[in-house]
Predict the structure.
Amino acid sequence: MTFPTDSLRDEQAFAESWQKVHAAIETGASLEAIAAVAPDFPARVAHRLLPLHQTLRGLGLSAPDLADQGQKLVAVTETYVRLHFTDRSAEGRELLVDVTRNGNAFLSGRRYESSLSRVSLSDAEIARTNILKIDIDRTEGVIIVTFMTFDGRPARIVFNPACPIDPVVDGTIPQAAFDTLRQSAPAEGLRRLIALAIEATERDGASSGFWRRLTNRDLRRAYSDRQSLEALAVSIADRPLTGEAWQRAVASFDILLARLGGDGLSGQLLEIRALVAVGIYRLTGEQSAAK
């Protein structure tokens, strides 16, 4: 699993596009002239936010799905650039993103730092969830969720695509945060992702007849993966998987991530959401079992 939308090339393209906008603002150019200088800038912003928004969804939080069509630059002031987007996840609701002169972006009370690799939640969300911020570390290729604590000690969960079923807890996660994560219904979120992965197996021929599968290894694999995913959906419906039950399900979680990630760019982004959802499911299950 990788972060296809966060490649070095993509990061450089975003920085170059933003620099063009910034330079045009410095010269006092009109809105139309600035939009013409860097016509790809709104799309670059949306592209950079996608992995962060999929991570938010994996945590059970709402996040917009910024449309890749129709976005545009709508205002320029001395302090910020305003972009217009459509939220596909909310029946076309219109969204405004403000990008300040130092590159920080603001959307619905959340702050995205200048490289759009970090999102800090709104004050209301922090108070409700204890989640302080989310980082995508492009150097290490990991997702880091940091929680608010009252003793000044860091408390984080690190989701590593190289070890997708083993999230690393750094510090002591507040009990209130665990309660919030449990209330986000990680099993339900996983079942939705499993359903999408099953659809991917169908597209690869999982429903093919026995004789066709007999002579085609890919069809046999798709059929086997579908069976594993269907069994996984059933197994997580009853109670959290821990101990031996978790170990037996590990291979199915690997299939889930692989099937989602193998379905083009949108699938690779779903894989990011699944990486977080699987980790949250495991951590909350272990925490419940330990009580």
Q: What stands out?
A: The chain has three domains: 1-61, 71-168, 175-205+214-289. Strands lie at 72-76, 80-87, 93-100, 105-107, 110-112, 118-120, 131-137, 142-147, 156-159, 168-170. The chain is about 50% helix and 15% strand.
